[in-house]
Specification:
With about 400 residues, the chain is an alpha/beta fold. The protein is built from 13 helices and 13 strands. Helix content is about 40%, strand content about 15%. The strands form three sheets. It has a seven-stranded mixed beta sheet, with helices on both faces. The chain has a four-stranded antiparallel beta sheet with strand order 9-10-13-12. A hairpin with a 2-residue loop joins strand 12 and strand 13. Helix 4 packs parallel to helix 5 and helix 11 runs parallel beside helix 13.
């Protein structure tokens, strides 16, 4: 795959025409055809009537097509894929439905997003659970030494598991360091534990970047969004659920979409909820977003196979990593080239500027990255739409900012 091909998608994104954008890990730009697909869907719903017998077949078809598309990406059957609004809801709704007892333990990676961590802590408070730490931030080998990371993570997991560990929370691709976690191997290890802990995986940074099928099939809860690396609209994502979750977890936030018969809620009905992933869906959602997300998926498919797209991302992130490594005063967090598009680094700014000040200065120049707090660093993301010369522009701007004269 060539960068010229990826420029086709780039030219369809208005947000990329007037800036150098490196914040795909926060939110990706929306291509114009995806916006147009949403507009068309909205118009069709209004033509049919937003609450008429004519509109329901259309809404059902949109939902089924979207569920099928996302389930194919995860390599699971459609009945195991629930549609969600974002990663956090995809993580939290099934998590809070797990069969946990006072004294059970949650094992949480030390690079998890605060939204998920806070939900785990509140669940622990309410249910009298214990929380343990899984140290993975220390693994910063990079892509070429992935086997060392894998071995280190599995050893840290073994050292951190307790007899009553019931849930392990670990991202597929760490949102701060950019290191890849061996999710299928972690799942295999947990199956050997007496409790066979549930594995919850935050896939915010993996879906749309790296092949996810093996990890999504191995995890019990694999939650992702469409608005980051897929470049879809915000407000729509999904979660792949294991058969064990469908059999053992209860719905938490409940609405008419959770019910097998949405027209009634009978107190005498022993099984009112869907037996599949829909038990974790709630109520009215924005249907036109589905058309937009599927259009973005089609545009990505036109850019090549997922492995080809990953190779493009890796070549760009590797180039950024190398230029940062050669830049005096800059230190990439990873010791080797990143496994995907997240490139985190620390600066020794001669002027004493904080990372958030550096972000604002770069933004004033039309270059957009972000700062993180744990660990304190800056993060730039490369995607298939990134141009090689943009990397040089970013590094040149960083070099200028570190000069004591600026």
């Amino acid at each position: 795959m060539t960068h010229a091909n990826s420029n086709t998608l780039r030219n369809l994104c208005p947000a990329l025409q007037n800036k150098h954008y490196f914040n795909y890990g926060g939110q990706g730009p929306l291509p114009t055809p995806s916006l147009e697909a949403m507009t068309t869907s909205w118009q069709r719903i209004q033509e049919l009537g937003p609450f008429t017998t004519d509109v329901w077949p259309y809404i059902s078809a949109e939902t089924n097509k979207t569920r099928a598309s996302l389930s194919r990406m995860c390599g699971v059957a459609p009945h195991r894929l629930a549609l969600t609004e974002n990663v956090t809801s995809g993580c939290v709704l099934p998590l809070w439905g797990l069969p946990l007892k006072a004294g059970d333990r949650l094992l949480i990676g030390d690079c998890e997003h605060p939204g998920v961590v806070a939900a785990c802590h509140e669940l622990a408070r309410r249910e009298q659970l214990e929380v343990d730490n899984l140290p993975v931030q220390q693994f910063r080998q990079g892509r070429e030494a992935q086997h060392e990371t894998d071995a280190g993570v599995l050893q840290a997991l073994e050292d951190s598991l307790r007899p009553r560990t019931k849930v392990v929370v670990l991202s597929h691709l760490l949102w701060n360091t950019g290191q890849l976690m061996p999710i299928p191997e972690v799942a295999d290890h947990l199956r050997q534990h007496a409790q066979q802990p549930f594995l919850l995986v935050d896939a915010a940074q993996s879906m749309g970047q790296i092949p996810v099928e093996a990890a999504a099939q191995a995890a019990d809860i694999y939650a992702f969004t469409g608005h980051k690396w897929i470049c879809g609209p915000e407000g729509l994502g999904g979660v792949a659920l294991s058969e064990r979750i469908l059999n053992e977890a209860s719905p938490t936030l409940i609405g008419w979409r959770s019910l097998r018969d949405e027209t009634r809620a009978d107190i005498n009905d022993p099984e009112p909820f869907h037996h599949d992933s829909r038990r974790f869906e709630i109520a009215t959602s924005c249907v036109p977003l589905m058309a937009g997300l599927r259009q973005s998926l089609r545009l990505f498919a036109n850019e090549g196979h997922e492995q080809e797209r990953l190779q493009t991302i890796q070549s760009l992130s590797g180039e950024l990593w190398r230029q940062l490594k050669e830049l005096s005063g800059a230190t990439p967090l990873l010791k080797g080239e990143p496994p995907a598009g997240l490139v985190s680094f620390q600066l020794n700014d001669a002027s004493g500027r904080s990372p958030d000040e550096v972000v604002k200065i770069l933004g004033s120049k039309g270059i957009w990255i972000r700062n993180l707090e744990e660990p304190i660093c800056l993060r730039a993301c490369t995607h298939i739409t990134t141009k090689p010369n943009e990397i040089s522009r970013l590094v040149d701007a960083l070099e200028q900012r570190m000069s004591p004269d600026h």
